[in-house]
Design goal:
The structure is a single chain. The chain is mostly beta strands and 105 residues long. It has one domain: Sandwich (Jelly Rolls), CATH 2.60.120.10. It is 0% helix and 50% strand. Strands 1, 2, 3, 6, 7, 8 and 11 form a 7-stranded antiparallel sheet that branches. Strands 4-10 form a two-stranded antiparallel sheet. A hairpin with a 4-residue loop joins strand 1 and strand 2. The protein is globular and about 45 Å long. The mean pLDDT is 95.
Length: 105
């Protein structure tokens, strides 16, 4: 029987990006690629450059606030599937927290 793994987002190591306006907290990483993260975007934060989904898809759940992918707004409670090879520019006018899962790394 496998051991259950768990993490508290507040205890996960923080990697600041883009002057600290975006914070990435890795909750779990498998030895073969899949990764789960919490990403916090401050009000007005915008990812620098295009976020391309390789080697696989990206699954996003908006925990709080309003997330924008450069095209549309997604309020809290939204689920977004970004297929392999797709791209967007993560941002938020109001600030948000999202849960991101990379099933293939």
């Amino acid at each position: 029987m496998s051991e259950i793994e768990w993490a508290l987002s507040e205890d996960a190591p923080v990697k600041e990006k883009f002057g600290g306006t975006v914070r990435v907290r890795t909750l779990w990483r498998s030895t073969d690629g899949p990764t789960a993260q919490v990403v916090e975007l401050d009000p007005g934060a915008c990812w620098e450059g295009l976020d391309v989904h390789e080697p696989g898809p990206e699954e996003v759940y908006v925990v709080s606030g309003v997330f924008n992918d450069g095209v549309r707004d997604y309020p809290a409670g939204s689920f977004i599937h970004n297929p392999k090879g797709s791209a967007h520019v993560p941002q938020s006018k109001t600030g948000c927290t999202i849960f991101v899962f990379y099933p293939e790394g």
